[in-house]
Design a protein that fits this description.
The complex is a heterodimer. Chain A has two domains: 69 residues, Arc Repressor Mutant, subunit A, CATH 1.10.10; 83 residues, Glutaredoxin. Helices cover 46% and strands 11% of the residues of chain A. In chain A, helix 3 runs antiparallel to helix 4 and helix 4 crosses helix 5. Chain B is of the alpha/beta class. Chain B has four domains: 72 residues, Ubiquitin-like (UB roll), CATH 3.10.20.740; 121 residues, Alpha-Beta Plaits (2-Layer Sandwich), CATH 3.30.70; 338 residues, Fe-only Hydrogenase (Larger Subunit), Chain L, domain 3; 78 residues, Glutaredoxin (3-Layer(aba) Sandwich). Chain B has 21 helices and 23 strands. Chain B has a five-stranded mixed β-sheet with strand order 2-1-5-3-4, with helices on one face. In chain B, strands 11-10-13-16 form a four-stranded parallel β-sheet. In chain B, strands 12-19-18-17 form a four-stranded mixed β-sheet, sandwiched between helices. In chain B, helix 8 crosses helix 10 and helix 8 crosses helix 14. Chain B is globular and about 80 Å long. The N and C termini of chain B lie far apart (89 Å). The chains are: A alpha+beta, B alpha/beta. Chains A and B meet through helix 1, helix 4 and helix 5 of A and strand 7 and helix 19 of B. The complex binds iron/sulfur cluster (SF4) (2 copies) and FE2/S2 (inorganic) cluster. The site of FE2/S2 (inorganic) cluster has 12 residues of chain B, from loops.
Chain lengths: 170, 669
């Protein structure tokens, strides 16, 4: 029975960052949200294993932690692609025909509402309510960089340029 | 004279007598205000908005979350309130998978009942939910999320009464749902199968998993002999399904019904409860006198056992190693009945009738199957049996009482009180007292262990030896006591744990009680049955003695140990957060680790993980290989990194991973 608890030392090392985050917050269940925030900054998303670990460490039921993580749109439970493509669907962009751009991008990358990330983990396509660049509508943002007055063709073109700049997959 | 504090409800003055909220006061005045999310045993959630009342000068308010104040004048059924309630029900129905005739909750559904009460004939709103898969992963419960009205009752029972929180709200807005962590299935998480969530769910989302078809099939098979064991708590609750009052003992009619629907023999789990008393009592006395692990926890409740395996693996040595009465019956039956009934072992079908959903899980534990033959084949809840009796068209109330079959139909009062909280303790005391003094016990009733509280203690002096006992029901209470034991702050010899409110009589397989009164009546029913029986001590059960002589050998001996005892597993999530439920210890299995750091993921680690897992499943290697994602191997430049055993494969491809797996497996054994 005790053997179950034995951990491989290398694994323990990999957990060091996570432990440091937990320590920094005094392992307090009340600090769940800042802890999740810090964890997401570290891993870019909230992997299931990490969430289970956090739950166990804080003495909270995993379903509770999962509930909090899925309540806030900020938290991502799925890994995102190397390039996060955000398409604004705020009123201004919507009026200026952002939907055909979304369709074109999804079509081109073979993703949809549910599966937002390409199989090769290169691109994630998301919509956001407003990027605050209404004057430039319709807007696409790729890894934080804003591309204004987009058309479906121009957006697909952008993707292709990134693809070409990437080394071929190993 | 001081005028009593009153609230005027629909023109009538009602005195405030410590009611916590208007709802309690209104119900005291016999107005049945509709509610989904209010339960007196749970915290107040205030989400269903059905309990609305009009408070003069304040407007419309939720009765469940408003404390009564002297002088309040309220109306419970104005035109406005009725319309709001109607809209609420219609909105719920619009999103509810209303296939009522095929729903297991059909006779007991609050949503259906309220829709009828409100006179709802059309639904003015369009549905907008998409269908989700029904979760059939649990041995004990079926979960059909399409029927959920998000009242949160299940979440609160599981968290507040059971101290587990296996299910909770997830997502939000129109996506909101009640689910286990990570959208997993109920059978894959720390749920202990107690079924209390199902007992509280007002609709048909959570229901005991039906095994009725398997029983009908067994009857149809000419080679099979189907026998039944009936748990103590069933006899004082089954009658409720046929209009009899809770607590009325219906053993005779129950036996008649079982024979009429096709059982070849009908036995009683109270018999093996007597056997449990002898084994567990002996184990306790040995621990107590020879310095063994104390306190000793009882082990007859399978929900508690699984709870301990998940949460307190360090206390597993404190659990009695005795199998539960259900499983003792199973092993004894499969050992002795084939010869007695003239049937091959594999053609003997043992069906349990239980008040409990967790017993379904228990019967499927691998420890209780030998050479492919399960000790207990099918577990029916009281509710399921009632449905079978109805299906067979029997007029239950009019049945001529029949008697149980021997030898396993013989029991003493000690066996029958097992069904109530405190019963196991009392039964063991009746045994231990005589064993310690060597003299017949003058008074068999130990009133100090009886009671309703969820956390009780008693101390009994026998021949100069003090035995300190704690009795808990509700696993949140068990958690409390387990923490005390862990901290070395508990001074008990025996701790009796039952997961369900009031013990097995409040099991989730019983007819839905709705309030504590039915549970009280059932408990009384069991103690009354004890009084009526000629024998009250398990050691006086002659057929138990005979079983030892003919089949089991000496009490506590090797054969008895093999047939009547068991062992437990650590199911605690390890530090890495994975559940330990492996059959082969982890260190023996080949470890495949795939880095899930961002760099590796971007380079296709997930694809490799998927392919390797697929390969392992395809070749049924699950028991030999562990595939895990690790956080970051810090080898980002050369990702994706995969480790197979001790081999590190940088820039790994699916093909390389598979090849390495094959090679390492060849070396591994
Ligand atoms: S069966 Fe018991 S442990 Fe499982 S989810 Fe329901 S209440 Fe929780
Ligand atoms: S599953 Fe049942 S009890 Fe739980 S929230 Fe849904 S309707 Fe309420
Ligand atoms: S019972 Fe008051 S809001 Fe549900």
């Amino acid at each position: 029975m005790t053997t179950m608890q034995a951990r491989s030392p290398d694994r323990a090392e990999q957990l060091a960052t996570l432990r440091a985050i937990l320590e920094r917050h005094g392992r307090q269940p009340a600090k769940l949200i800042p802890i999740l925030q810090a964890v997401q900054d570290e891993y870019r998303y909230l992997p299931e294993e990490v969430l289970s670990y956090v739950a166990t460490a804080l003495g909270l039921p995993p379903a509770h932690v999962y509930g909090v993580a899925t309540f806030y749109a900020y938290f991502a439970l799925e890994p995102k692609g190397k390039y996060v493509v955000r398409l604004c669907d705020g009123t201004a962009c919507h009026v200026k025909n952002s939907l055909p751009i979304l369709d074109a991008l999804r079509d081109h990358l073979q993703v949809d509402e549910e599966h937002k990330t390409t199989a090769d983990m290169q691109f994630t396509v998301e919509t956001v309510a407003c990027l605050g660049a209404c004057g430039l509508a319709p807007v696409v943002m790729i890894n934080g960089q804003v591309h204004s007055r987009m058309t479906p063709e121009a957006a697909v073109q952008l993707i292709e340029e990134i693809r070409k700049s990437e080394p071929a997959e190993a | 004279m001081i005028k009593p504090a009153v609230v005027t409800i629909d023109g009538r003055d009602v005195a405030i007598e410590g009611e916590r909220n208007l709802l309690e006061l209104i119900r005291k005045a016999h107005v049945e205000l509709p509610t989904f999310c209010y339960h007196s045993e749970l915290s107040i959630y205030g989400a269903c908005r059905l309990c609305l009342v009009d408070v003069e000068g304040r407007g419309i308010m939720g009765a469940c979350s408003t404390p009564p104040e002297p002088g309040m004048r309220i109306k419970t059924s104005t035109a406005e309130i009725r319309e709001i309630r109607r809209i609420t029900i219609e909105l719920l129905l619009a999103n509810h998978d209303g296939h009522c005739p095929t729903c297991p909750k059909s006779d007991n559904c609050k949503l259906q009942a309220l829709a009828r009460r409100m006179g709802i004939e059309t639904i003015r709103f369009k549905p907008r939910q998409k269908r989700v898969e029904v979760d059939n992963s649990s041995c004990s419960l079926t979960r059909d999320p399409n029927k959920c009205i998000l009242c949160g009752d299940c979440v609160r029972v599981c968290t507040e009464i059971q101290g587990i929180g296996a299910i909770n709200f997830a997502h939000r807005g129109s996506q909101a749902a009640v689910e286990p962590a990570f959208g997993k299935k109920l059978g894959d998480v720390e749920c202990v199968n107690c079924g209390q969530c199902a007992a509280f769910c007002p609709t048909g989302v959570l229901t005991p998993k039906s095994e009725i078809p398997a029983v009908w099939r067994a009857f149809e098979d000419p080679r099979k002999k189907v026998v039944a064991q009936v748990a103590p708590a069933v006899r004082v609750a089954l009658g409720e399904c046929f209009g009899l009052p809770p607590g009325e003992e219906v053993t005779g009619r129950l036996v008649a019904a079982l024979r009429a629907i096709g059982f070849a023999a009908v036995y009683d789990t109270s018999f093996t409860a007597d056997l449990t008393v002898i084994e567990e009592g002996t184990e306790f006395l040995q621990r107590k006198t020879k310095g063994g692990k104390l306190p000793m926890f009882t082990s007859c409740c399978p929900a508690w056992v699984k709870f301990a395996e998940h949460n307190y693996p360090e206390l597993l040595p404190n659990l009695s190693s005795c199998r539960s009465p259900q499983q003792m019956f199973g092993s004894l039956a499969k050992e002795t009945l084939p010869q007695q009934l003239g049937v091959a072992k594999e053609d003997l079908v043992v069906v349990s009738i239980m008040p409990c959903t967790a017993k379904k899980f228990e019967a499927r534990r691998p420890e209780f199957t030998h050479d492919g033959v399960a000790d207990v084949d099918i577990v029916l809840t009281t509710q399921e049996l009632a449905r079978m009796i109805e299906e067979a068209g029997l007029d239950f109330k009019a049945l001529e009482p029949d008697s149980l079959d021997m030898p396993f139909g013989f029991y003493t009062g000690a066996g029958v009180i097992f069904g109530a909280s405190g019963g196991v303790s009392e039964a063991v005391l009746r045994f231990a007292a005589e064993a310690l003094t060597g003299k017949p016990l003058a008074k068999v009733d130990f009133l100090q262990v009886r009671g309703e509280g969820g956390l009780r203690e008693a101390s009994v002096v026998i021949d100069g030896t003090t035995v300190k006992i704690a009795m808990v029901h509700g696993l949140a209470n068990a958690r409390h006591v387990a923490e005390l034991v862990k901290a070395g702050k508990a001074d008990y010899d025996v701790i009796e744990v039952m997961a369900c409110p009031g013990g097995c009589i409040g099991g989730a397989g019983q007819p839905i009680a709705g309030n504590g009164l039915a549970r009280k009546a059932r408990t009384k029913g069991l103690y009354d049955a004890d009084k009526r029986l000629p024998l009250h001590k398990s050691q006086d059960n002659l057929f138990v003695t005979q079983s030892y002589q003919e089949h089991l050998g000496p009490v506590g001996g090797e054969r008895a140990h093999n047939l009547l005892h068991t062992h437990y597993h650590n199911r605690r999530p390890s530090d890495e957060g994975e559940l330990q439920k492996h059959e082969t210890p982890a260190e023996v299995r080949l470890q495949v680790k795939i880095c899930a750091g961002t760099a590796c993921l971007v380079r296709g680690a997930q694809k490799i993980a998927h392919a390797v897992r697929g390969y392992v499943e395809e070749h049924s290697l699950q028991n030999m290989v562990d595939v895990r994602m690790i956080f970051c191997s810090e080898n980002c430049g050369n990702g994706p990194t995969v480790m197979v055993g001790d081999r590190v494969l940088p820039r790994c491809t699916v093909e390389e991973a598979r090849q390495a797996l094959d090679e390492e497996l060849a070396n591994h054994t």
